[in-house]
Give the backbone structure.
Amino acid sequence: MKSVVNKLFMALLIALSFACFLNNANAAQDTKGNNFWLMFNDNSLGSQTLSLFVTTSDAGVVVDVTGPFAPILGVPIPAGTITTISIPASAMVTYNDAQAFDGIHLVTQNPLHEVTVYGLNRAQYTTDAYLGLPVDILGTEYYPLGFLNNNVLGTLFGIVGTAAGTQVEITPSATTMGHPAGVTYTITLGAGETYQLKNEANSGADLSGTKIKSLGAPIAVFGGHKCSNVPVVFYCCCDHIVEMVPPTSTWGRNFVTFPLATRLNGDSWRFLAKDNGTTITVTPGPVIPVLNAGDVYDVILTSAAVINSNNPILVAQYSNSSFYDGVTSDPFEMLIPPYEQFLPSYVVSTPATGFTNNFLNIVAPTSIVPAGVLVDGLNVAGWLPIGGGFSGVQVPVALNSHSVTGTLPVGVFSYGFADYDSYGYPGGQSLSPVAVVTNLDATPEFSTNLVGQTHCIDALVTDQFNSPVVGIRVDFQIIGANPGNGFAFSNTLGVAQYCYVGSHVGCDTIICTTGNLVDTVYKCWQPALPVELSAFTASVNRKDITLNWSTSEEINNSGFDLERKTVDATEWTKITFVQGNGNTNEPKNYTFTDKNLNAGKYNYRLKQIDFNGNFQYFTLSSEVEISVPAKFDLMQNYPNPFNPTTKIDFEIPRDGNVMMTVYDNSGKLVSTIVNEFKSAGYYTVQFTPTNLSSGVYFYKLESNGFTKIMKMTLLK
């Protein structure tokens, strides 16, 4: 059995690594929470020290901890620090195939405050820590993952109930304590009630892949081993392994891997299938047989690889025992998140002392390396291609805290080795339910904007029932006139919205992806407007329409053609040109009155023309109507007196024959101006007498039984 150095720091560095994660996945489900149900599984060796490490980014957080011990109440958790809460060793669960109220309940006194919690089970020779998952991201279906029996016999799992009367179906993957493999049995758990099953009788037995399903409330599930040797074939030495297992809804289909530094013969990997008929492809790697639900496949990989599957799987990377390749090391288990759950930034920390070889493994989209990934504010060299559009690098780091940021989400894994000792953990992840996503629909399919404006793409993420899925990361790649990339998380409506500004004229293809789902939309960008039109309105006065428009700024503006057409016409008619103001950043107002129109409906548009001959159109938002006159009327001629011509306006409310005649002062008919059928409307006629002398005359309008007479004066 080996000696263990500074295992306490392992939990501390894990906790520190997630402090930044608290601030970087706010749009997705993550490991922050205000309500946790936890337990400590059996650790085979020595005198155990149990601890909870609690961290927060909020100010003024206070937590209460209850369990099979005197309550620990009112514990302050200062922001940005690690607070240690000691748990009595008697809280460790040692029984087998039995139940007791040994669950540990941690809650924040203010439900609006959230914390991240880690559990440490430490003994002199064997220690491990786990990341606690809050109740709001727990599920009802699990398959625990640990390791098989090969030297020490102690593969195990544990369950904690979160609500009274929760029935749980268990289908063990190995015959254990009288429960046959593959045969389901049922237990009922109360809130805080725990159950543990250990196989301490059969070499080669493995409780990984046991199906655990709650028929009611969510449950917390832990998988591991009392003290495991890695790989499958026995090599010295063993270590306690425990992980709080994520629900199957958060498992993924797409992973990228990078080997651990210093190891000579590769790393052990385990793949756990959620569904029957699961096919897994490792590139490069061996051919893997088809797996069914709960099946575990062990493989040793000696190089970076891309892992894809048709169904959700759980993936873990293991550091092998030191005797495997003669390299100073120790077994550890490190869950690998699917790359849909990567984050854009992390803070990770090594132990304070005791580890001489410390590393960060980073995997990132090849499109952003090296300039788009910073470690402690600096670029790193040595990137190697992995495949699938990703690259990886092993970064030696000193004993300290380290920041990692990417312009796109990246995967970060921190680990280190000392004499018969090691640590390893993922830098963080969002725990979004990527396993349930079945549909991705991006809109708008096609649209056009002006250069310099903002365009937003809405990517709707749904499950097999077309229900929205929250917290899913959608990646956006832009190819074309404005190349770029980005990402967004789906909101409560299942929509991940990504916006960008087009800087160049042309068209873009926008590829939206989450996991294996892809949808493509298109965007075209037109030249920037030389004129920013802030208003375009119309008003009606009898048979005149007044058009008003305003600009907020003008560039190279020659002016405006004002065009009109009736609603049933196909061609526009230019009615005037209004001079522009050239270049100005001050508001400008324009007006024009379109006069003497017949009753009907009209559309208007402005053709803005710059001095280079380029133009653009602004169309009035609605049609304008000249309505039929409400009454019969004859207006005073203008000008009056007149010489030699005058105009006369009249209105008729109904269709009919119209006669307009002129009489001299004696009542003699001297001229007939109009004698024809006309539709209801507004009219103007022109009267130009050629053989009349100066004097007073009378003009009469007759239509549909209406008559009106007006007086006018001719001066010669």
Observations:
- The radius of gyration is 40 Å.
- The mean pLDDT is 90.
- Residues 475 and 487 are 4 Å apart (CA to CA).
- The helical segments are 7-19, 21-24.
